User: Which sequence fits this backbone?
């Protein structure tokens, strides 16, 4: 089956065809290019820039799209595309970054190093098939440090590598501090949190071949001001906030938070500070806490 389409489509017929060649809207030379792929003259190496869902109902905007004839509301926020399917643990027809070749590639020997202001890495990729081909190595980052909603992983870098049959090459990559940061709307700036992260390497967003965990400690001396919208999870680990908790009496409201994996802990950690009124805090206590912490 050869597709010429402008976006992801449903494929109820997929189990009745031997293969699918995705050409999107390739222009006037699409016929010749498609024949080169089908005849084996060219080894395909394209990767999908979007996930193909199994059902229309699985898409992140399904509940709101076209619901209001005057205004189109997109409420998925960070969780678009593969980040939504990852978080919901929804199976897809074809994941973001997916693409087959007439050969196969093996990944090995991932090495990740934390430098003063960046993360560097390398891995070995080998063509284990009998045809020359090109692979797109994809590098993702998983954030376990920040106490706000986060995707399971986010694409951070990629590299295209062309290999002859049996050939191996070392692929090197670099990740800046921005790749480990999230945008804090309350601070109107990017925030980088110390803690645990994973660097994942694979051939698409679901086929992760190699993973290495790292610990970042880049912002030890940076004190971030708090606001009513600051998440409680951002505060409970800070020594200066602990002192302010005691001075305002809020240590009683937050004293039961252990930072563990229980449902109650996770619910509290992901609440904004202003919502602490639901667990016994007063507006005056919250305002006093902010003044004490921010100076």
Assistant:
């Amino acid at each position: 089956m050869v597709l010429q389409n402008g976006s992801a489509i449903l494929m109820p017929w997929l189990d009745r065809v031997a293969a699918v060649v995705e050409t999107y809207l390739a222009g006037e030379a699409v016929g010749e290019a498609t024949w080169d792929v089908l005849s084996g003259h060219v080894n395909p190496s394209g990767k999908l820039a979007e996930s193909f869902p199994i059902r229309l109902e699985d898409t992140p905007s399904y509940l709101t799209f076209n619901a209001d004839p005057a205004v189109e509301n997109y409420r998925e926020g960070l969780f678009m595309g593969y980040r939504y399917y990852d978080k919901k643990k929804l199976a897809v027809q074809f994941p973001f970054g997916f693409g087959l070749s007439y050969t196969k590639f093996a990944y090995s020997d991932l090495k990740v190093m934390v430098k003063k202001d960046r993360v560097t890495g390398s891995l070995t990729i080998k063509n284990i098939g009998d045809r020359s081909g090109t692979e797109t190595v994809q590098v993702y980052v998983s954030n376990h440090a920040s106490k706000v909603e986060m995707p399971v992983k986010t694409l951070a870098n990629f590299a295209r590598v062309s290999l002859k049959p049996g050939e191996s090459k070392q692929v090197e990559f670099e990740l800046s501090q921005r790749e480990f940061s999230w945008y804090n709307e309350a601070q109107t700036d990017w925030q980088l949190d110390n803690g645990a992260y994973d660097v994942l390497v694979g051939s698409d967003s679901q086929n992760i071949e190699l993973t290495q965990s790292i610990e970042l400690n880049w912002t030890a001396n940076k004190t971030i001001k708090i606001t009513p919208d600051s998440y409680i999870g951002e505060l409970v680990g800070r020594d200066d906030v602990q002192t302010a908790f005691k001075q305002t009496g809020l240590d009683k409201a937050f004293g039961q938070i252990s930072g563990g994996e229980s449902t109650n802990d996770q619910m509290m950690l992901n609440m904004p500070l202003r919502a602490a009124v639901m667990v016994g805090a007063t507006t005056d206590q919250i305002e006093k806490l902010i003044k004490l912490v921010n100076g």
